Amino acid sequence: MTAKIIFSDIDGTLINSDLQVTPKTRDAIRKQIMDGNLFVPVSARMPKAIMTAAGQITNSCPLIAYNGALVLDEMGKPLNSQFMKASTAAEICEFIEQQDGDTAWNVYSGYNWFSSLKPNSRVKREEEIVEVKSLPVSIDHIKELKGVHKVLLMGEANVLDKLKPVLEEKYPELYLVKSAPHLLEIMIKGVKKGVGVKVMAQAFDVAMKDTWAFGDNYNDEDMLEVVGHPVLMGNAPEDLKKKFSNVTLDNNHDGIAEALSKMS
Predict the structure, then answer these.
(1) 154 near 121, Cβ under 8 Å?
(2) DSSP string, 223-236
(3) I need a surface site. Which of 28, 31, 91, 185 has the fewest CB within 10 A?
(4) Cα(153)–Cα(155) distance, rounded to whole angstroms?
(5) 183, 176 Cβ separation under 8 angstroms
(6) Residues contacting 171, CB < 8 A, separation 6+
């Protein structure tokens, strides 16, 4: 039997609205692992926050973090790492602090999550969701980092929609994508989940025709486009459902387990 890789987004896909991997989905993925296939969580999250969810299934697995900016094998060895200059990340943070409103900046570098010294309810909520604490620092601290894998802006959806084109024009070398209405992810251009998926498949010598991927949002789109078997969750936006024909049940009704039961 040819080994397969099962890639899965986390929020809105692998976990339900209670932030849990349901027993049915957990058991379906564990069966695939026992059959010799590889399970790889793919997320905008940092590595430790990915394992908050994936750890409900397995103690160790390869993973793709920061939308593909950091790809790690099952031993934590980097297979790919792409980052922006710390000075660029600091500039973005300064720009955000100059704006009116309560948009919060977050900076991720390797295994570290940095947030503003100014408390923000959205940051606190994210900490509760991923079960990881951010480290509040000054922007001067951000400037001293060796590199930044991702900047994450948290705020009102309409505010982020207005900020996105402004930042895209100001920083043409960066790639911006919304992973949720209130979350704007910023990485260097070339960083996409689909790129990370290709790196992982090559590292484990698995043909793309033998790869599956599950996703529910726009930052999953390119991942779904490159795998052999894309599966869109039932809770995905309607325009994505028009693009991908294979739509399973939503994340609250074991959409992954349903699709894996038909896997050949």
Answers:
(1) no
(2) HHHHSSEEEE-TTS
(3) 31
(4) 7
(5) no
(6) 88, 92
Model pTM score:
0.89
The rounded distance, in Å, linking the Cα atoms of 9 and 220 is 7
Neighbours of 261 (CB within 10 A): 11
Spatial contact of 56 and 14, defined as CB atoms under 8 Å apart: no
* H-type alpha helices, the chain: 23-34, 47-54, 86-98, 121-130, 139-143, 157-170, 193-203, 221-226, 238-243, 255-260
Confirm if 30 and 58 have CB atoms less than 8 A apart: yes
Give bridge partners of residue 112 from the DSSP assignment.
109
Domains of the chain (ranges; CATH) run 5-81+191-260 (3.40.50.1000), 86-188 (3.30.1240.10)
In DSSP notation, 177-230 reads: EEEETTEEEEEETT--HHHHHHHHHHHTT--GGGEEEEE-SGGGHHHHHHSSEE
